[in-house]
Design goal:
The structure is a single chain. This protein is of the alpha/beta class. The chain has one domain: 3-Layer(aba) Sandwich (Rossmann fold), CATH 3.40.50. It has 11 helices and 6 strands. A 6-stranded parallel sheet has the order 2-1-3-4-5-6, sandwiched between helices. The chain is globular. It starts with 11 loop residues before the first strand and ends in a 7-residue tail after the last helix.
Length: about 240
């Protein structure tokens, strides 16, 4: 166990969850790095990435190491855009930078409507399996934990968060301006946000490193927590980047 994230450095690890996720996704990260925090509360139910970033800025320390997972990585980038001096280093996990793609709106709304007509449990059970790596989908304990987490969010949070994602801001031009140490982390078997997508992200950020979590899917922090934590340790060990 690491007694804190940066030893004598006062910088705190702050974690931003993704769609339908909360602090339960990161239990093993918080256990490994005491003193870290998850920004819970589903971003206050806001319906834009910008408003989510404001929610985070109001709650995070003056300076922090920021880890964003999935949708949370898009929020982390928006936090950096708004107040870059408050972010000492950045980790982007299981995410994307692409704009809304053809058919994405329809797919998200189809899940929304499934929840409206058949209950939120039906929505979760249609969505969640594809978020878990093929090797871990049969793990009843893992699935049950993740399902309970998603169910706690509920239909209204899902609807607010997909509206935020469908209205997400452009980030491609932001990446080249990032000057803090960046780690791009992805589960090897992430079917929603594949490895090659993360290779592209890392290639657009100066001094970024790509780390692949073997055997993990989209929910890598919960699926392979030890390996994910090792990726965080490598990120922590990466040197400071001078601002040019």
């Amino acid at each position: 166990m690491d007694m804190n994230f940066f030893g004598n450095d006062e910088t705190v690890l702050v974690i931003l969850p993704g769609l339908l996720c909360d602090g339960r996704m990161f239990d093993q990260q918080l256990a490994a790095f005491p003193g870290g925090m998850v920004v819970d509360g589903y971003y206050g139910g806001t319906e834009s990435i910008g408003a989510m970033a404001e929610y985070v800025l109001e709650r995070m320390p003056a300076r922090c190491a920021l880890l964003g997972h999935s949708m949370g990585a898009r929020v982390a980038l928006e936090v950096y855009r708004k107040e870059p001096d408050r972010v000492t280093r950045l980790a982007l996990a299981d995410t994307g930078i692409h704009p809304v793609r053809a058919g994405e709106r329809e797919k998200r709304y189809a899940l929304r409507d499934l929840g409206r007509t058949q209950g939120f449990g039906a929505l979760v059970d249609a969505w969640l399996p594809g978020m878990i790596g093929p090797d871990r989908r049969a793990d009843a304990r893992l699935y049950g934990t993740l399902r309970a987490m998603c169910m706690a969010a509920g239909q209204s949070i899902y609807e607010a968060q997909i509206e935020a994602l469908l209205g997400r801001p452009e980030v491609g031009t932001l990446l080249s301006t990032i000057r803090c140490p960046v780690s791009v982390i992805v589960g090897e078997l992430d079917e929603w946000s594949p490895v090659e997508q993360h290779r592209e992200i890392a290639g657009l950020i100066q001094h970024a490193t790509l780390q692949v979590v073997a055997g993990a899917g989209h929910m890598a922090p919960a699926e392979m927590p030890d390996d994910f934590n090792n990726a965080l340790r490598a990120w922590r060990a990466s040197g400071s980047v001078p601002v040019s």
